[in-house]
Design goal:
Length: about 450
């Protein structure tokens, strides 16, 4: 079998290839990111086969009317939060990428998922490139799942991993992590752009041709993006981010891409000594430490995918000590904050130009939907006037540049969640008042303008 060798320079940030060295990448604009890589490809002139599965079945073109659909449903685990983020369960033949900061709990989550998938009758192969099988066994003992019988394989060579897969024939494969895997036909170090790209391509081919579900752990850069070429996220079916403060016990699993479900779903977990525990009612979690009688606080009923979540929006408005006012936003879009403050100043008459403003979403959640505008404006006005808001009030609505309160989606679901947690009043757009039945125990107040809400609440 002949070998074909080529030398290219590859940008380690975006994956751009060049036949010669470049100081600045023409695609991403980064400096000194090109590294020389040798590509060695084994060429067999007599091998004319296409993509072959583990069962030696060669794929071929066929009319769409002759394509047979295998009615294989989703596989559900006992981790309902994990099922929710995936869109209802694990899809056979899917390729899922999970990213997150170091030490956030990615390996712990997938180890628990491996035990759950093994409990439902599937054969699971956990491939570890960062830890030894003994270290994985120690973690499994801490998680009290060491008595399960899924397979642990410590290897980084993908050719050997494929051979093991042919022998075991697993239904589910965990790759921890993709940056430690290397393709033997690529003469470059593990974790480089070419290695990550080729390894993911091989795993994608393996998943699609053999109907095997594969979970890949991906490292993240200091900017918070998954390391490797952007093509990595395009190739997989689902991209999940495991988020949370390392010094806090709560973790959020967020879907940013999902070919089989919503891209706005989140799952909430609590990290304990014996592993991750589901938080089935995150609204209570985010509101449990809210103070009564505090100014600068408002509660919004936000939607994360199909789930309503009640979250506290906090604002602190203070006179500026310098010429330019400072604006800080945590968990919010900075441009949205600037827009709301401009509307408050022009349409409501709050002189905020000489005031610093610090805003955050309590609990570490990040919200980026228009329905949070009204709660954001009320919290800013409450802090500016140093007037408390009613602890049993909830706010939902988008604010236009003319100060009007605009219609939002899923209003019935939002109101029901507020009523379930004991809120007595909820302010919503007046155009959302019709076409649904309000629950008992909560007063629905339809609003037209922001000025009207501020006058009634404060």
């Amino acid at each position: 079998m002949a070998k074909k060798q080529a030398t290219v320079f590859v940008c380690q940030e975006c994956g751009t290839e060049s036949p010669k060295y470049l100081g600045k990448c023409p695609s991403c604009g980064r400096w000194n990111t090109f590294i020389e890589e040798k590509i060695i490809e084994e060429v067999d002139p007599q091998d004319t086969r296409g993509r072959v599965s583990l069962a030696n079945e060669v794929s071929k073109a066929q009319p769409i009317k002759d394509v047979k659909i295998e009615q294989t449903g989703r596989v559900k685990t006992r981790l309902d939060e994990f099922n929710r983020v995936l869109g209802g369960g694990v899809v056979p033949g899917s390729l899922v990428l999970i990213g997150g900061d170091p030490g956030i709990g990615k390996s712990t989550l997938l180890l628990q998922v491996s035990a759950e998938l093994n409990q439902v009758g599937g054969v699971v192969l956990y491939v570890t490139g960062e830890e030894s099988p003994g270290q994985i066994k120690m973690r499994a003992q801490r998680l009290t799942i060491s008595d399960t019988d899924f397979y642990i394989y410590g290897e980084t060579d993908l050719s050997l991993i494929v051979d093991t897969i042919e022998k075991i024939k697993p239904d589910y494969i965990i790759i921890d992590s993709i940056q430690t895997m290397f393709h033997p036909n690529k003469d470059s170090v593990a974790g480089s752009v070419s290695q990550v790209r080729e390894s993911t391509a091989l795993l994608m081919q393996l998943a699609k041709t053999n109907n095997v579900s594969i979970f890949i752990v991906g490292h993240v850069t200091k900017e918070g993006n998954i390391a490797g070429p952007r093509m990595l996220e395009h190739m997989v079916d689902t991209v999940l981010y495991f988020e949370g403060e390392r010094h806090q016990s709560y973790r959020i699993l967020r879907a940013v891409k999902n070919r089989y479900g919503s891209t706005n779903e989140i799952g909430v977990f609590e990290m304990r000594e014996n592993g991750l525990r589901e938080v089935l009612n995150p609204s209570e979690l985010f509101l449990e430490e809210r103070l009564d009688g505090a100014s600068g606080s408002a509660v919004v009923s936000a939607m994360e995918g199909t789930r309503p979540i009640l979250v506290e929006v906090q604002s602190l408005v203070t006179p500026t000590a310098f010429g330019n006012a400072k604006r800080t936003a945590s968990g919010l879009d900075y441009n949205r904050v600037s827009l709301i403050m401009a509307v408050l100043e022009q349409r409501v008459g709050l002189l905020l130009q000489n005031y610093d403003a610090y805003l955050k979403i309590a609990g570490g959640v990040r919200l980026n939907e228009p329905a949070i505008d009204l709660a954001l404006a009320v919290s800013i006005a409450s802090s500016y006037r140093d007037t408390e808001t009613d602890a049993k009030d909830c706010f939902v609505g988008e604010i236009g540049l003319t100060g009007e309160i605009r219609r939002v989606s899923n209003i019935e679901t939002r109101v029901n969640e507020a009523a379930k947690l004991g809120f007595k009043r909820i302010f919503i757009p007046k155009n959302n008042m019709e076409g649904w039945r309000a629950p008992e125990g909560i007063e629905i107040i339809g609003c037209v303008t922001l000025q009207e809400v501020i006058n009634q609440v404060l």
